[in-house]
Design brief:
Elements lengths: L2 H24 L4 H17 L3 H22 L1 H4 L1 H14 L3 H22 L12 H13 L3
Helix pairs in contact: 1-2, 1-7, 2-5, 3-5, 3-6, 5-7, 6-7
């Protein structure tokens, strides 16, 4: 693995973990992470000649997260999730972004089910998505290829 790729993955690892904790605590994913992550990851992927795969991954993630934002608004549906998804789509590229999203939504759904069964999740409450996205990203970055 090229040193630039290792550095990108290390930075994204720290970033997604911070995003997950922040989303759990404050229900926000800071633009201070997502916006630079989008720019840096896109730049690295362009330099590596992987722009088509990266942009395809970002578009898929954006489409998945844009619909809820468009329907109920960015305050309620997670514009931070949308931006984090775009950054991770650039990182994972196509087709691995699909794997990342399946992990993220699967983990979040399982957590919701456990909390709901344990009556710790009110019916009107949503779950933060960043922890699931972080797990999906960690799998894509450091798991088997």
């Amino acid at each position: 693995m090229h040193p630039v790729e290792i550095l990108l993955r290390a930075a994204m690892t720290i970033g997604v973990l911070i995003a997950a904790v922040t989303d759990l605590r404050a229900r926000r994913i800071p633009n201070a992470f997502t916006l630079p992550a989008i720019g840096i990851t896109l730049g690295v992927r362009l330099a590596q000649g992987e722009a088509i795969s990266a942009v395809a991954g970002a578009l898929i993630a954006a489409l998945v997260f844009f619909l809820p934002v468009a329907i109920v608004g960015p305050e309620r549906a997670g514009a931070g999730d949308l931006k984090l998804g775009v950054a991770l789509g650039l990182l994972a590229g196509f087709p691995r972004v699909i794997e990342l999203l399946l992990i993220a939504f699967g983990v979040t759904a399982m957590a919701g089910l456990v909390l709901w069964i344990g009556r710790r999740l009110p019916a009107d409450r949503t779950l933060p998505m960043a922890p699931g996205l972080a797990l999906g990203a960690l799998w894509i970055m450091w798991g088997p290829a």
